[in-house]
């Protein structure tokens, strides 16, 4: 069982010992640290924080602990209840709130939960802010409000509807065009809040929706990471229903993947590629993704006359570089779409709306659209960390071994070869080393990954 404290928040497994897992005491302590930081940082008379959660089994317990801790600090709470990560991000500025907290462990299995922390813009905290909260949490320097100064709780369960309205109002989203196309779509909501939000959006766009695992019970019917090997039920239902495509999201709805009409994956890396292709065709500009994402985005961006740049992994890093380079769309190759015309956060609702508008305009099948893009193939692997593994030493050794290649060390070690690449990094969310490779065929990507993993094991003596 695990508790991971990082600048991006606190994430862990439910139950077990305090300080080793995400226990009620750890949740309260970290919420108190966030609330204390907020009050120190903004120095106001009153404070407001938006709180929402995905449908995982521990969500209600953790949310009540977090909200009541904030109330105990004298902070007013806007309780969205069951929500999505992008919905909370949208709600923070609309509520003129000082920050937001989403209770979700994203794609992690049901035993995990986490506190994702937002600033007053509804964006994730930067490294310095996250480090300060960790420092406050370790110091236990909390000053709770007296009884007459306790915060208040306001329930607002309308924000998924409001979020859908915001998406439909985007200039490049054309619901009428999508309705005219007469799409039939199967939605896998992994029994979390995507099962509420995505069908609502689709129905508003005139799409015939077939629901699969859309009851927000928190009982995930399969591994909630939206990867091909977890989506056999979706694949079978898309074919059986003769649907135009399938849509799957992770439990907090910031990762988006499509399935083609033939039951094969569109490819999570190509979610961003397709949406960027559409946006760039309407408005020229630049793009950004992280350095573990496909080269296909670079190719599509350059086709439209724009400039592509890669950031360190992590949404806050992508957003920072997007702002710097004035990128009009960006995100992460795991299916995360960041569209600044909406907000600076990964948003599956925005991705769905842009993709369907693009598909309706192209008047082709989902399979044909996918085949129109450059073909790269990725292999995503991981090595479990143990206390005896010297991760920094392993990465340094790999850097030295391939010193003659194009090396980037902004985030772990990325080695760019002429025809392929490999990226090695320690995960921010799990106790693992991630090994991502990309090549012109799946066999080549898998072979490169296996070669690198064998070299790591030899260096580490495992």
UniProtKB/TrEMBL annotation:
Keyword annotations of the record: Isomerase, Magnesium, Metal-binding, Phosphoprotein
Top EC class, one word: isomerase
Swiss-Prot/TrEMBL cofactor(s): Mg(2+)
EC number(s) recorded for this UniProt protein: 5.4.2.10
Alpha-D-phosphohexomutase alpha/beta/alpha domain ranges (all copies): 8-142, 171-263, 270-374
One GO MF term: phosphoglucosamine mutase activity
PROSITE patterns with a match to the protein in the record: PGM_PMM (PS00710)
Protein family according to the UniProt entry: Belongs to the phosphohexose mutase family.
PANTHER family: PHOSPHOGLUCOMUTASE (ALPHA-D-GLUCOSE-1,6-BISPHOSPHATE-DEPENDENT), PHOSPHOHEXOSE MUTASE
Protein name: Phosphoglucosamine mutase
Source species of the chain: Pseudofulvibacter geojedonensis
